[in-house]
Design brief:
Order of helices and strands: HHH
Radius of gyration: 10 Å
Distance between the termini: 22 Å
Low-confidence stretches: none
């Protein structure tokens, strides 16, 4: 699965809405954001966080 830094990976509607509500619309914006901060967003679960981390790692990036 190749991800683009300009889009968000498929993580489910609640998690996507949570990210958009917090102002994150691209994968690139999540580099370095603390995982704990994202986990506090309503609708964001461990599976979505794992998908985001894996997508970032494809670009040698990661959550904080």
């Amino acid at each position: 699965m190749t991800s683009s830094l300009d889009t968000l990976p498929k993580i489910g509607a609640p998690a996507t809405r949570a990210l958009h509500g917090a102002g994150y619309t691209t994968l690139r914006q999540l580099d370095g954001v603390p995982r704990a901060d994202l986990a506090r967003l309503h609708g964001m679960g461990p599976k979505a966080l794992d998908i985001l981390q894996a997508a970032l790692e494809e670009h040698n990036l990661g959550l904080g």
